[in-house]
Amino acid sequence: MSHLFESECERWKVEHERIPPKTPNMHAYIESYHRLLEDKCLSMYEFESYTEAYRAVEEFVRRYNTRRLHSSLHYLSPVEFYRRHLETGLQPRRPVKV
């Protein structure tokens, strides 16, 4: 299956970055996002068509990027954080080093 995926990426001129096996922490933010997408969107439905799935993911992404409260944005939605950033210079929180 991975060979088919790789050949399709080449065919469509899509650059796909791979990380070494067993190192999900190398891309912790996207791993976290994918987990949220799975838990809060994909696993909640039994899609009957690609179009139906696409619409659900599109709505999830819209909500995530505009209305969802983000801890790194002082528990504000991205839209509200951006407004406050423009007004006051508010900056995102820095990640806590573990």
Short description:
This protein has 98 residues and is mostly helical. The protein has four helices and no strands.
Proportion of residues in β-strands = under 5%
Order of helices and strands: HHHH
Q: How many helices in DSSP terms?
A: 4
Q: Note the overall shape.
A: extended
Question: Major sheet, described briefly?
Answer: none
Helix content: 40-55%
Secondary structure class reads mainly alpha
| Averaged pLDDT | 89
Distance between termini?
A: 36 Å
Number of domains: 2
Low-confidence stretches: none
Cα radius of gyration in angstroms: 17 Å
Count of individual beta strands: 0
Structural features, described:
This protein is 52% helix and 0% strand. The protein is mostly helical and 98 residues long. It folds into two domains: 24-66, no CATH class; 69-98, no CATH class. It starts with a helix and ends in a 10-residue tail after the last helix. The model has no long low-confidence stretch (mean pLDDT 89).
Task: Outline the fold blueprint.
Elements: H1 2-11, H2 28-40, H3 50-66, H4 78-88
Essential attributes:
52% helix; 98 residues; mainly alpha
